[in-house]
Specification:
The structure is a single chain. The chain has 121 residues and is mainly α. The chain has a single domain (3-120), classed as 23S rRNA-intervening sequence (de novo design (two linked rop proteins), Up-down Bundle), CATH 1.20.1440. The protein has helices at 3-27, 33-52, 58-84, 90-120. Helix 1 packs antiparallel against helix 2, helix 1 packs antiparallel against helix 4 (90-120) and helix 3 (58-84) packs antiparallel against helix 4.
Length: 121
């Protein structure tokens, strides 16, 4: 499995976790504002990664992956707010944030590698 497929699968799995988190926050915790924000940003990561797989050029690929990285960073922010406002326990936060951090590292590496190969041409 190449990195592109790994990150597509990883971000899709993360989006599913985010959907479950949204359902938990809205149904169990009656939290509707932050939960919608994290639903939007957390599912957008995988959507942009998937879109990048059909990029029209290397520059387009880098752009889409960069958007995915920004969405992952935004998701990290919402997770931190949910933890600091006690909608998420420390354990809940650590579990999902660890996955998000892993995604950020992989996407960052993909972007850096793509930029190197893009500038060599």
């Amino acid at each position: 499995m190449n990195k592109d497929n790994l990150i597509v699968e990883k971000t899709k799995g993360f989006a599913i976790q985010i959907i479950h988190l949204y359902l938990y926050l809205s149904k169990e915790k009656k939290e509707y504002v932050l939960s919608k924000q994290i639903l939007r940003s957390g599912t957008s990561i995988g959507a942009n990664v998937k879109e990048a797989t059909q990029a029209q050029s290397k520059a387009d690929f880098i752009s889409k992956m960069s958007i995915a990285l920004k969405e992952a960073s935004e998701t990290e922010y919402w997770l931190e707010l949910l933890k600091e406002t006690t909608f998420l326990s420390e354990n809940q936060f650590n579990e999902i944030n660890k996955e998000n951090e892993s995604i950020i590292k992989i996407i960052t590496k993909i972007i850096k590698t793509s930029k190197i190969t893009h500038t060599k041409k």
